[in-house]
TrEMBL record:
Its main location: secreted. This is Peptidase M10 serralysin C-terminal domain-containing protein. GO terms for cellular component: extracellular space. It is found in: Secreted. Pfam families: Peptidase_M10_C. One of its GO terms (molecular function) is calcium ion binding. InterPro entries: Hemolysin-typ_Ca-bd_CS, Peptidase_M10B_C, Serralysin-like_metalloprot_C. Residues 13-120 form the Peptidase M10 serralysin C-terminal domain. Keywords: Repeat, Secreted. It comes from the Bacteria. PROSITE patterns: HEMOLYSIN_CALCIUM (PS00330).
Length: 121
């Protein structure tokens, strides 16, 4: 498992199945070849102002794990936020409104588009 600190980090996994946790601050995450899990345990880990970048995301192989934030409650994927907590929008970035105020609280960018099935919440 690779852990980042509270600042800007660059984490690079090797071959195989890696678990990467960038922590707070803007982070650059690369799992390398294999099935990788990008772990987020707090909303502050990847905010709109300091969003992490997953630079080698492979849909169907890699996973974005938000269970540390959601407690396993899941997310509701929508086209636009309605002000309901737990709504998420997915494109080449994952945006989540955890507070229910209709604004983005959490954002992570992916190089390689993620699918809803790649998100564990």
């Amino acid at each position: 498992m690779l852990h980042g600190g509270d600042g800007e980090d660059s984490l690079n996994g090797g071959n195989g199945h890696d678990l990467l946790d960038g922590g707070a601050g803007l982070d650059w995450l690369s799992g390398g070849p294999g099935r990788d899990t990008f772990l987020f345990s707090a909303v502050a880990d990847s905010t709109p102002d300091a969003a992490d970048w997953i630079v080698d995301f492979v849909s169907g192989q890699d996973t974005i794990d938000l269970t540390g934030i959601t407690g396993g409650a899941g997310l509701h994927f929508v086209e636009t936020f309605s002000g309901r907590a737990g709504e998420a929008m997915l494109g080449y970035d994952l945006q989540v409104d955890f507070s229910g105020d209709g604004l983005v609280d959490f954002r992570v960018y992916t190089v390689g588009q993620a699918a809803v099935t790649d998100i564990v919440a």
